[in-house]
């Protein structure tokens, strides 16, 4: 086990930023810490780095309790969203920096430093800009320099806080693919913070879902997406339609209507208030005269590349609620805007509805 976080708690005044966090990160894996703004991701990363002190609990790095170790002694590399490269130093010198400031006994000889920096610049594909200054680079190139700089001292752990957050969507996409490839080559245990679910699902070996200072779920991208442990995870990862009603034998009863289909009700009692979560691609649209289902009206058909997004408004018991389905172009041919239809879930997950 590379990093173990045990019973970690952190308050800012009365506010619990982290509540009883327990996590194990394996050697060589790339893990995303994912959650909405303010859920505690950065605080957790900073405590692991040694930049912030926890109120209680411990951080164990490669078997050694690091809780009382200074940030310099933890051997972690960082890359932040706005990583301040030294403006007055060339790219080469920025990457060499961490090696040059080592104590005399640990510092490699000048020739070895030059070889190492050259290797790192090759790795991040920036050898051709080695003599430039940071202001002469694009945002994406700067972040790659920041990564090379963090890797120069051969950290045991790499911590990245929204490393591509400030970049535009296209560059972000390229860099995250690049980060994945780089990680496959180096296998440095890496944790990266993001609030972008697509980024987390695409890049990470495992994803930690956080909400309000707590861990909601940890698992592979497929596990957290296909088997969400809570309604929070379900709705945070991709869009969902919500249907409020009562648990019945046939599924979910909404007034006189039924949301049919195979509904997984966990251990909810018959008659209890529940919300069904149905992803757009799990929602089937049937003609208005079909038996069962929920009555709705199509408000818009939006082409989204090869798929059509169908926006709907509920009628009767779901009056005014907005729903969204996803169809192939072929399937969508049967429908037009303004048409009355019935909605049936091909698959749905029920959660207790505490608001009723
Ligand atoms: N130094 C501080 N003093 C007081 N409150 C703080 C401090 N740092 C963080 N917080 C609070 O702790 C909570 C968690 O903050 P944190 O930065 O860890 O969240 P986050 O998930 O990284 O959010 P974001 O995605 O917006 O960066 C927030 O409510 C924040 O306001």
UniProtKB/TrEMBL annotation:
PROSITE patterns: ABC_TRANSPORTER_1, ABC_TRANSPORTER_2. Pfam families: ABC_tran, CysA_C_terminal, TOBE_3. SMART domains: AAA. Residues 3-237 form the ABC transporter domain. Keywords: ATP-binding, Cell membrane, Membrane, Nucleotide-binding, Sulfate transport, Translocase, Transport. Gene3D superfamilies: P-loop containing nucleotide triphosphate hydrolases (3.40.50.300). One of its GO terms (molecular function) is ATP binding. Coiled coil: none annotated. It comes from the Bacteria. This is Sulfate ABC transporter ATP-binding protein. It comes from Aeromonas popoffii.
């Amino acid at each position: 086990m590379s990093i173990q976080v045990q019973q970690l708690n952190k308050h800012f005044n009365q506010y619990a930023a982290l509540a009883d966090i327990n996590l194990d990160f394996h050697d060589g894996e790339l893990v995303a810490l994912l959650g909405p703004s303010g859920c505690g991701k950065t605080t957790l990363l900073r405590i692991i780095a040694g930049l912030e002190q926890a109120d209680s609990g411990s951080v164990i790095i490669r078997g050694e309790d690091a809780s009382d170790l200074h940030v310099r002694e933890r051997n972690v590399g960082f890359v932040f969203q706005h990583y301040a490269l030294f403006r007055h130093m060339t790219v080469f010198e920025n990457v060499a920096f961490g090696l040059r400031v080592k104590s005399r006994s640990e510092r490699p000889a000048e020739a070895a430093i030059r070889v190492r920096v050259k290797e790192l610049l090759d790795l991040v594909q920036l050898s051709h800009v080695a003599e430039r200054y940071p202001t002469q680079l694009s945002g994406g190139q700067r972040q790659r320099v920041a990564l090379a700089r963090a890797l120069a001292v051969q950290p045991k752990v790499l911590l990245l806080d929204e490393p591509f957050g400030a970049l535009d969507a296209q560059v972000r996409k390229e860099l995250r693919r690049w980060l994945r490839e780089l990680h496959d080559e180096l296998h440095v245990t890496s944790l990266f913070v993001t609030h972008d679910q697509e980024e987390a699902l695409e890049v990470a070996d495992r994803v930690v879902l956080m909400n309000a200072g707590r861990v909601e779920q940890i698992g592979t991208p497929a596990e957290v997406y296909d088997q969400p442990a809570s309604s929070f995870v379900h709705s945070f990862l991709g869009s969902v339609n919500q249907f409020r009603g009562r648990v019945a034998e046939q599924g979910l009863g909404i007034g006189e209507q039924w949301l049919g289909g195979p509904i997984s009700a966990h251990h909810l009692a018959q008659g209890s208030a529940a919300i069904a979560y149905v992803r757009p691609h799990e929602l089937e649209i049937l003609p208005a005269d079909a038996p069962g289902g929920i009555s709705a009206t199509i408000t818009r058909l939006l082409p989204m590349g090869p798929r059509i997004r169908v926006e709907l408004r509920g009628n009767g018991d779901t009056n005014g609620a907005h729903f969204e389905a996803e169809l192939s172009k072929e399937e969508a041919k049967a429908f037009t805007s303004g048409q009355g239809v019935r909605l049936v879930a091909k698959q749905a997950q029920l959660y207790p509805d505490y608001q009723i």
